[in-house]
Amino acid sequence: MKKRNKILLSLVALASLANADFLSQEEVKNFDKAGFFDKVNGKVTRVFDSGSMYIVDVQQKEINDTVYVTKDKKVMFSGVAIDMNKGQKINLPVDISIAKGKESFSIGNGKNEISIFTDAQCPYCQAFVKYIPEIIEKTDTKINVFHYPLQMHSKARALAQYQTSLVGKMNPVDIIKIDEHDRGFRESNMTSEFIEKANKEIDEQIAIGNKLGIKGTPYILDSKGNVLDWQVYFSKLGIKIGR
């Protein structure tokens, strides 16, 4: 059944999210009149009218999930919905305003902004940052960098601390490229006072990331709060991965 639901969702041609709207808080409150989500101890937190169906954020204890509901509210799907025009998974836009001015540092000065939550020990993040100079060269973009060290990576927080110590002292493109093999990192001797200060900044960025629903890194958002699939994003820019 789950497989069938995913296939059905993938075949649905959803309207462009640019032409869709979030329901008001009052409409969200009345969305679950049948009481389905109440029965499973779930709470509807946001509802997005995509034009052909509703995209619904549901909170169940500590877990946030996204489900898809037909316009007559008689059928709900869980799984993956694909925007057939863009060829990528559909995610609800997030409230990016909570991250404004909270970045560790920025790269570039373009009018188009994207934000990246990164873990310097994450291989996918390292794969992404290799192409940042090309992104800056091809687009009028400013990249806001937030630290999001994952617990599974033993050196990620220390790397975030070290990168923070270099802000204003080194080219930001070089800062974001620093990984666990960097000699400066291996020989660094940060004071306990600085580490405490850096940890406060990093913890604030992690908290923002959690509010935005981060499930892994790199997590990339445009200025409207849309989650970007970085491989699709690169394809649109004409950047070839793996060169």
UniProtKB/TrEMBL annotation:
Entry coiled-coil feature ranges: none
Stretches assigned to the Thioredoxin-like fold domain: 108-226
InterPro entries registered for this protein in UniProt: Thiol:disulfide_interchange, Thioredoxin-like_fold, Thioredoxin-like_sf
Stretch forming the signal peptide: 1-20
Keywords tagged on the record: Signal
UniProt name for this protein: Thioredoxin fold domain-containing protein
